[in-house]
Design a protein that fits this description.
There is one protein chain. This protein has five helices and eleven strands. The strands form three sheets. The protein has a four-stranded mixed β-sheet with strand order 4-7-6-5. Helix 5 links the parallel strand 8 and strand 9. The chain is of the alpha+beta class.
């Protein structure tokens, strides 16, 4: 995938609290792609994120979800009626990346919806390496066009120039969620589906 996009994935390390491991590739506009896999670890089946990653891996992989960052997650916490949980991962160089996240419980049944994150450290995965590609379009299978989200206008307004196309889930084997992401790369347009 990295060669198709003209960049390299970076070993992001382990999410010890969630029982997962990731690799990231920086994109332009402060965005990045994250490839996540479950670990043979007790936390994997004890946390919503670990369970979601494990289930997607057992289904054969593919797009799991998307994430939106906010500078202040308190408004999101208020709408969800609960506090965000803290997460962290230790990178191979020993540095620790920290954040708060909320909405992972909901993606289990509503894969078309993103979850939300607030970074607690200045480092960001979009800075790990050289970003040469940018998201052009996201295709999502959803009959309601994100109407179930309390933050639809913020989500659609925060895409940094990327567009969203909605398709009927019937054209995606009845599955809701991300169908494909089209990126602009130095070699032209690339679709990851």
């Amino acid at each position: 995938m990295g060669s198709r996009l003209g960049s390299t994935f970076v070993d992001g390390g382990v999410h010890p609290r969630f029982g997962t491991r990731n690799f990231t590739m920086p994109l332009q506009n402060g965005q990045y792609i994250e490839v996540v896999c479950p670990l043979d670890h007790p936390a994997t089946e004890q946390t919503p994120w670990g369970k979601a990653v494990s289930k997607k891996a057992q289904e054969g992989g593919g797009w799991l979800t998307w994430v939106f960052a906010t500078e202040d997650i308190s408004e999101v916490e208020e709408k969800f009626g609960r506090s965000a949980i803290e997460g962290h991962r230790t990178r191979p160089d020993g540095s620790d990346l920290k954040w708060k996240q909320i909405g992972v419980n909901e993606i289990t049944d509503s894969r078309e919806l993103p979850f939300f994150i607030q970074w607690l450290t200045a480092d960001h995965p979009s800075q790990d390496g050289k970003a040469v590609a940018s998201i052009e379009k996201i295709t999502i299978a959803d009959t309601d066009h994100l109407a179930d989200s309390w933050f639809k206008s913020e989500i659609l307004g925060g895409l940094n120039g990327a567009s969203v196309d909605f398709v009927d889930p019937s054209s995606n084997d009845g599955e809701y969620g991300i169908v494909a992401v089209q990126l602009t790369t130095p070699a032209g347009s690339v679709v990851l589906d």
